[in-house]
Amino acid sequence: xxxxxxxxxxxxxxxxxxxxxxxxxxxxxxxxxxxxxxxxxxxxxxxxxxxxxxxxxxxxxxxxxxxxxxxxxxxxxxxxxxxxxxxxxxxxxxxxxxxxxxxxxxxxxxxxxxxxxxxxxxxxxxxxxxxxxxxxxxxxxxxxxxxxxxxxxxxxxxxxxxxxxxxxxxxxxxxxxxxxxxxxxxxxxxxxxxxxxxxxxxxxxxxxxxxxxxxxxxxxxxxxxxxxxxxxxxxxxxxxxxxxxxxxxxxxxxxxxxxxxxxxxxxxxxxxxxxxxxxxxxxxxxxxxxxxxxxxxxxxxxxxxxxxxxxxxxxxxxxxxxxxxxxxxxxxxxxxxxxxxxxxxxxxxxxxxxxxxxxxxxxxxxxxxxxxxxxxxxxxxxxxxxxxxxxxxxxxxxxxxxxxxxxxxxxxxxxxxxxxxxxxxxxxxxxxxxxxxxxxxxxxxxxxxxxxxxxxxxxxxxxxxxxxxxxxxxxxxxxxxxx
Length: 483
Ligand code: CLF
Ligand code: SF4
Known about the structure:
By secondary structure, the protein is an alpha/beta fold. The protein folds into 2 domains: 43-320, TIM Barrel (Alpha-Beta Barrel), CATH 3.20.20.70; 345-473, Nucleotidyltransferase, domain 5 (2-Layer Sandwich), CATH 3.30.420.130. 33% of the residues lie in helices and 17% in strands. The chain has an 8-stranded mixed sheet with strand order 10-9-8-5-4-3-1-11. A 5-stranded mixed sheet has the order 14-13-12-17-18. Helix 3 (94-107) runs parallel beside helix 4 (126-139) and helix 11 (330-359) packs parallel to helix 14. Residues 9-28 and 479-483 have low confidence and may be disordered. The structure holds FE(8)-S(7) cluster and iron/sulfur cluster. FE(8)-S(7) cluster binds next to strand 1, strand 3, strand 4 and strand 5. InterPro entries: Aldolase_TIM, Di-Nase_FeMo-co_biosynth, DiNase_FeMo-co_biosyn_sf, MoaA_NifB_PqqE_Fe-S-bd_CS, Nase_CF_NifB, NifB_C, rSAM, rSAM_sf.
């Protein structure tokens, strides 16, 4: 069968495409990364910020059981370590998971990673995790395998993870001091009995550190997720960052606590708040120079499917998938060829944009919110955006520093004022919004809140658009638009 015609345009953008970020050179390997490491991360949307513009992950919810209790988790909801609250639509058996993976791979060409992130713990529910991965690699060998775990049972399975070529493991580590841990974990279940308080947190801490060291010794890339809980572990995460860096963590991802009374969690019911966006950013900024930070996490559901920030899980519930589904590699193969070309283009554009910003000779720092549907372009309408990617432009260059989730402002052609107020509140601290299109009314209301919104750079490379805005503000010569 001949490969189907495919382009980034058809998958992620409404216009032309092109792409890659300053962290990625042409063919998009960053200068500070070993080729062998780049090979492992270049198609992983969580481990490479650049890759997240092009590649998608799929979580298969095969691991419902858990061996600890976190104060931010209610089992009726997703694992809060790796998801935003919301029930998992359906738990899967390993066979169902394989069927679903094939169905997704046939129509989502960006798919590159299969993750097991709950809704419980992938290492505690080990038999299901292992059976699922074994069956998936039989069907589609080039998919990367990834797990997320609280770490308690992790040391028991490192050797098998290695045997199965699982290159990416996430451990959620919220503390290195058991006194702090006792305020996060009421109990753990370990060696056939329940442990509570500081003793439980001490055991968990020791197992997490052991697991991290074992993975690092085997060259398995390990990301540490930490939930930032104001007044409980926010300051303490500076210490956590040092510990995990010393033990070989590849990335550290600080995630904001999501706490709502409706979720029925201990923290939700007792009024423990999560951090505001600017508090999270301030902590992340303080951690620069320590373990390398991930700043593009979307706190996915345990059954998420698609590009980060664009969950398509509801399109692939079991009742929509045929019993007999066979894998067709053509779309994924064709897409990869397009991405290889795009990465080179985007790397060149980003390099040029970074030089312009650095050369602007301005002491300014701008926070810029970008509406994007993927592909590294400014290609979403303001009213259609459900999130904005947040970039910082400063004399150091251009970097992605986070994202802000919003309610979609425009539905059915109309925008609601109440929704717009929420969007503006979510954009606290932002200087400029870049989008493909915006109406006069939201533009005026954003302006009144001190935020300039522009659609002049629609479908442009994100970094090119940012550098043009930054240079104009600094009086330097702007880049010519290439879109
Ligand atoms: Fe899933 Fe996690 Fe693997 Fe990614 S998610 S198991 S590493 S494939 Fe990614 Fe989602 Fe953030 Fe997790 S954006 S919550 S970091
Ligand atoms: Fe919930 Fe995950 Fe914590 Fe287990 S590890 S209690 S599933 S958040």
